[in-house]
Amino acid sequence: MKADDARAWQDAVLDEVFVAIAEDPELVRYLVFKGARVLVRHVPEAARRSLDLDANVTAEFVAVFPELRQRAAEMQRRIGAALNRHFERADPVRFELESIRVEPKPPGGHPRGWNALQAQIRVRDLRQAGVRGLPMLTIDLAAPERLSDHSTTTLDVGGRKVTVYTLERIAGEKLRAFLSTTPEHQAKKSGVRETLRVKDLPDLARILEHAPLSDVAFWNAAGEEFRLACEGRGVDCAGWRSFEAVEPLARETYAKDATVAATIPFDLAWACVRRIVAQFEKEGITPFAYALPDRGDA
């Protein structure tokens, strides 16, 4: 299968996986969805292929299944059952679940207790029985986050309601994700190395296009969600200085990622982020600094 065809297939099957999960009341209860699939529901003009499905597990799920391996096993059982039910209901049947494996991420648990799970799924496509090398599907399940009354909403997925991040929360998390991968924050975390997350920059530009800065209520709420998200993970923001310091690295990383660079020009995306952060400075949302939370089980 050609690379473009594989990505299109992966994206389409993940849509089916999303619907399958939405049909399971317990999974809906224990998951809060986010990421590109939710962003495009809020902002259709931000449409881009997504090669995974993103969610956070809820604090309730952690409380019910306190041991990390127990959580992984429970998610593996529930997601596998949901996929089998959904695929078998189709007429004609097109997909079959070949395998599913849910493991802690990182394997030994996070040093600060931000214990995530990752599901790796292989699906057999009966319409492409002779095609070899169908890509693996991935679901990333992050640890619970601190949320406000304005962090989540519901969306219709396959006729069922699921809990998802609001657009304000998504905007705040994308800014947090970028700052959490800067060299300054890596040094704060004792030198853990990560690639700068430039893929969020064009998404922020699309959000700004959808919700201009004249919508003060939206951006104030997004700013509060940004601050709340940063507090939960000990991420600091000195205002625009925190972004300006990594502009050369951001430009270089952006240019090296062909998928990101093909969306919108770096200068346009960067200018949009600068306008957003300037608004936060104006409203007194930044600067702020938070200590890294003590290790806990999340």
Describe the structure.
The chain has helices spanning 3-22, 25-30, 36-42, 59-64, 68-89, 167-179, 183-188, 200-210, 216-233, 240-244, 247-256, 258-261, 266-282; strands at 31-34, 53-57, 95-105, 116-125, 137-142, 152-157, 160-165. It has 298 residues and is α+β, with helices and mostly antiparallel strands. The protein folds into two domains: 3-165, no CATH class; 167-282, no CATH class. The mean pLDDT is 94.
Protein topology:
Elements: H1 3-22, H2 25-30, E1 31-34, H3 36-42, E2 53-57, H4 59-64, H5 68-89, E3 95-105, E4 116-125, E5 137-142, E6 152-157, E7 160-165, H6 167-179, H7 183-188, H8 200-210, H9 216-233, H10 240-244, H11 247-256, H12 258-261, H13 266-282
Helix pairs in contact: 1-5, 6-8, 6-9, 8-13
Tally of discrete structural domains: 2
Instruction: Give the overall shape, derived from the CA principal axes.
Output: globular
Determine the number of helices (DSSP H or I, runs of at least 4 residues): 13
Main beta-sheet annotation: 5 strands, mixed
Q: Low-confidence runs (pLDDT<50, min 5 residues)?
A: none
Beta-strand segment tally: 7
Order of strands across the main sheet: 1-2-5-4-3
Distance between the termini: 39 Å
Give the mean pLDDT.
Answer: 94
Helix/sheet category: alpha+beta
Residue fraction in strands = 15-25%
Order of helices and strands: HHEHEHHEEEEEHHHHHHHH
Oligomer: single chain
Using the CA coordinates, give the radius of gyration.
20 Å
Helix content class: 40-55%
List keywords for this structure.
7 strands, globular, single chain, alpha+beta, 298 residues, two-stranded antiparallel ribbon, five-stranded mixed sheet
